[in-house]
């Protein structure tokens, strides 16, 4: 097997492993968002930031390896993994395509989980905004004095949770 092809397979495998870790965190993050555990969410975000840095390094390595392969195979233009695999053929081609497909599956799941988390966060923010507006409007109704204001009107609006049992 070509040394460059081996390097590309190793880089793609390492990227997949990191994305699998990120997928695991994203699934855990869903539960944390639902429970409203902000401190745990912050810890997860720090882990994700480290993963992003690692993925950035791997991306640079992958680009260098692909450039080397393009030179070896005398390919021109912007090649993707499928085109590069075609250039090798045989077992190398199969291994490259299988590795690429494994990474694609993880990336698809990761994207799906992140979309879910984005929706959960959006719903949480909308809920917080709704409650903030509710309390603000209740507080504002009896907090100013005007010509017709009296003490009784002020007292009836102070408790936002009046309830008959």
SSE order and pairing:
Elements: H1 3-35, H2 38-73, H3 81-88, H4 90-141, H5 151-156
Helix pairs in contact: 1-2, 1-4, 2-3, 3-4
Q: Helix fraction?
A: over 70%
Q: What is the mean predicted local confidence, pLDDT? A: 84
Tally of domains: 1
- C-alpha termini separation: 78 Å
Instruction: Write down the CATH class.
Output: Mainly Alpha
DSSP strand content: under 5%
- Enumerate how many helices there are, as a single number: 5
Count of DSSP strands? 0
Q: Major beta sheet, specifics?
A: none
- Rounded Rg: 28 Å
Principal-axis shape equals: elongated
Name of the CATH architecture: Up-down Bundle
> What's the assembly state of these chains?
single chain
The assigned structural class equals mainly alpha
What is the fold named in CATH at topology level? Answer: Methane Monooxygenase Hydroxylase, Chain G, domain 1
The SSE string, one letter per element, is HHHHH
Q: Any low-confidence stretches, pLDDT <50, length ≥5?
A: none
Which labels suit this protein?
mainly alpha; Methane Monooxygenase Hydroxylase, Chain G, domain 1; 82% helix
Give structural notes:
The chain is an all-alpha fold and 165 residues long. It has one domain (3-139): Up-down Bundle (Methane Monooxygenase Hydroxylase, Chain G, domain 1), CATH 1.20.58. Helices cover 82% and strands 0% of the residues. It contains five helices and no strands. The chain has helices spanning 3-35, 38-73, 81-88, 90-141, 151-156. Helix 1 (3-35) packs antiparallel against helix 2 (38-73) and helix 1 (3-35) runs parallel beside helix 4. It is elongated and about 85 Å long. The termini are far apart. The model has no long low-confidence stretch (mean pLDDT 84).
């Amino acid at each position: 097997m070509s040394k460059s092809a081996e390097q590309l397979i190793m880089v793609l495998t390492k990227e997949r492993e990191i994305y699998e870790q990120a997928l695991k965190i994203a699934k855990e993050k869903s539960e944390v968002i639902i429970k409203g555990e902000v401190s745990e969410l912050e810890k997860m975000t720090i882990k994700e930031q480290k993963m992003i840095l690692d993925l950035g390094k791997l991306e640079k390595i992958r680009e260098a390896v692909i450039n080397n392969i393009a030179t070896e195979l005398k390919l021109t233009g912007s090649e993707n993994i499928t085109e590069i695999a075609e250039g090798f053929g045989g077992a190398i081609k199969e291994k490259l395509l299988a590795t690429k497909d494994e990474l694609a599956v993880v990336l698809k799941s990761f994207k799906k989980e992140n979309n879910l988390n984005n929706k959960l966060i959006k719903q949480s923010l909308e809920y917080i905004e709704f409650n903030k507006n509710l309390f603000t409007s209740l507080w504002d109704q009896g907090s100013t004095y005007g010509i017709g204001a009296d003490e009784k009107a002020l007292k009836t609006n102070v408790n936002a949770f009046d309830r008959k049992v």
